[in-house]
Amino acid sequence: MAFQSLRHGALCSAAAMALAHAPAFAQDDPIQTRSGAAPQSSGIADIVVTAQKRAESVQDIPIAVSAIGGEALAQRGVTDLTAIASTVPGLNVSEQVGQARLTLRGIGVDNISTGAESSVAFNQDGVFFSRSAAALASFYDVERVEVLRGPQGTLYGRNATGGSVNILTNRPTFSTKAGVSLTYGNYDTVNAEAYYSTGLSDTVAMRVAGQIQNHSGYGENRLTGADVDNKHSQAVRGQLLFEPNERLTILVGADYYNQKDRSNTYHYFGPAGFTAAGALVTPTGLLLGGFDPGPRNVASVRNPSNNAEFWGARADISYELTDGFSLRSLSAYRSSDFLVESDLNPIGVNLFPIDFGETSDEYSQELQLNLDTDRHKLVVGAFYMHENIDGFIKGPLNLRAVGGPDLFVQGFYSGGRLKTDAAAVFAQDSYSVTDRLRLTLGARYSWERKKVADQSDFNFDDLYDAANGPRSPVHRATKSFNAFTPKIGVDFDIADKVMVYASYSKGFKAGTFNLGSAGPALDPEKVDAYEVGLKSTLLDGHLRANISGFYYDYSDLQVGKVQGQLLGLENAAAAEIYGIEGEFALEPVRDLIIGLNASWLHARFKSYVTADQARPGGDGATLDENGVPAFDLSGNTLPQAPNYTIDLSAQYSFDVPGGSLTVRGESNWSDRVFFSPFNLNYMSQPAYDVQNAYVTYRLDSGLRLTGFVRNIGNETIRASGQVATTLLGSPVIGFGKPPRTYGLTVAFDY
Hints:
The chain is mainly beta. It is 4% helix and 57% strand. It starts with a helix and ends with a strand.
C-alpha cells in the first residue's frame, strides 16, 4: 500500500519523479549559481555551513547535517519553520496553540504547556531561542537553514538532545543590492518581501529587510461565519556591519514580528473517551446538540484569535587575534509575547473557551575562542542565559458539561512565573592525526537553576469573572541541575571525497517544572548517542551519497501528558531509538538533478507506565506508582516518529529565450504518525503522500517568475492532536496542515 501510494504520487508530480527532499546542496546551488542563464553545471555544487561554529563544506563535517539555501526557500515559498520538515530526513514540525513542536529522529516534546522546552535547539544567527513560539516567526531574507541531527551537547548544549535547527540570515554587503518579491495565490494570498543592502562608508554597511503575509482562512467557524486558520503578519529586520580594520568585525541587528489573526485554533477530529467498562463516550458538545464541523472548520460560539509579538537585538563581535586565532562575543536579548484564544469544545456548544498566554524575556551571552591550524580545529567557549517566563492557561466552564444549568463558573486557572539561570563551558577540537585521519574530542559542563512561583485552581463555586484570579496559595520551589556531556569521534578519508565517521556523545536536557501544577520538578533528560556514517561525492561530482546510522539510549525522557484539565510533562522511564538515513543527489545529465532521501526509524519506549484519563480502566493489569489503573506502554512508538519516510524530487533547468526555465516536482511520503504515547489510531495521522510542483522562469534582467502548487491532491493531513478533558467527553482535537495552495511569485533582484 505504501509503495502504491508512492508510485501514484510520483506519476502525479509535475516533474515525473518527485518526493520531497534532495539534499539542500543538491537542490539549491544549481539554481543559485545561475544569473539569468541556465547553469553550466559540472556536477552537484557544494554548500558551506557553520554547523560546528566555523565555516566548512557540508561534506567535510562528520555529523548528519542538512542545509537548505535561501534560493530554494524562496522558490518553494517557505515562510516558516513548518514548511521545511519535508526537506530534512528525520525532522517533523507541527504547530499547536501558537507553538512549534520540533522532533528529530523521534526526539521532541509533544506538549505545549507553559514553561515546556523543546528537545531540539532553535538558533537564529547564533542566538539561542528558548521559546518555541518565537521559532514560528516568518523566514525572510534567509541565507540558509542548517539542521543538525542527533544530540549536539558539546557545541550547542542547552536543550539539544534531539538536534539543532540553525537559521542564518543574509548579512549586510558593501556593494548595493536590493530585491522585492510579491506572491498572489488562492485563499486571497498576498505576500510581499523586500530587502536593501548597501555600504554607508568604506567601513560601515547596512541591510534592512521586511515581510508582510496575508491569506484568508483555510476553514470557517460554522456558527459565526468567520474565517479560521487565516494569517496576517508583519516582520522587519535591520543590521549594521562595522569593519574598522581587517581584524575587527562588529555586527549589530534587531528584528520585530507581529501577528494578529484567527489561526492556531483547535479542530474536532472525533470521539476518543471510554468508560471503565470500555464503552465509547460521546463528546458532551454533540450530546447537547452540537455537530461535527469537519476537519478544517470549527463550530464555536467564540471566534478564535492568535496574537503574537516577538522582537530581539544582538551584537556579534569578532576579533582575529592572529592568523587562525580569533575571539567572538555574541550578546542577545529576546522578547516573546503571545495569547491564543480558542475552544476545547469546538463542536457547536459553548462549554469550555480557553486562553493560553505566555511572555518571556531572555538574555544570553556567549564567548568563543577559535583556533584553526593545519592540525587543529579548536573551539573553546562559555555560555550564560537568564530568562523569565510568565505563562497561564485559563478558561471558564459551562456547568451543562457536568449536567448543571447553562451557567459559566470560574473553571480553571494554571500559571505562574519560571526563572531560569543557565551557564556552561565547552571545548571541542578536531585534530588531524594524518592527512586522512582526524580525531574529534569535545566536552561541555552545563549548570541550570530554575525557580518557580505558580498556582493551579479548579473552581466550580464562583461565577465566571475574567478579572478573578485563583484562590489557591502560591507554590514556590527551586531546583538545580548539572551535567557533563563529552563527545569523541573519528573520521577517515577512505578515498578521495569519500569519508567514513563514527562518534559517541552524551546529551542533556535540564529538568523543569510544570508551570501551574504546584508539583515537584521533573528529572533531567539524558541520552547516550552512537552514530556511524559515510559522506561521498562520486562520478566526478555528479553523485552525492550520504548515509548515517545511529543508536540512542534515553533515560528519564520527558513526555507530554494530559493531567486533569492541563497539559503537562512527566518522566518516562526509558526509550531506545535507532535508525538509518540516506540522502542522495544524482545529476545523470547536465542540469537534471534527482534527489532521494529515505529514513527508517525505530523509536520505542523501553519502559513506561502511565494512566490515561480518557480510559480510566487502564489495560486491566497495570497500576501506576500511585496505584491508579494504567497502561504499560513498553514497546510503543514515540509520538511524532514515523517508522518510514521517503522523499523524492526531480529538478531540470534549461535555456529559453531571454533566460532560463527550472521545473521541479516533489512528493513526500510518510508512514503513520502517532500523536500520543498510547499509539491509538484515532490519535494519529495515517500514512500519506503529498506532491508539490514549481516552475521558475528567470530572465537575464534579474526578474524571476515562479508558479507553484503545493499539496496537489488537496490531502487532509493532521499535524498534531490530543484528547481534551473528560468533562467534555474526551473529544479528539488538534491541528492540521494547509490544503492545496497555488499561486504566482514575481521577484526582482538588483
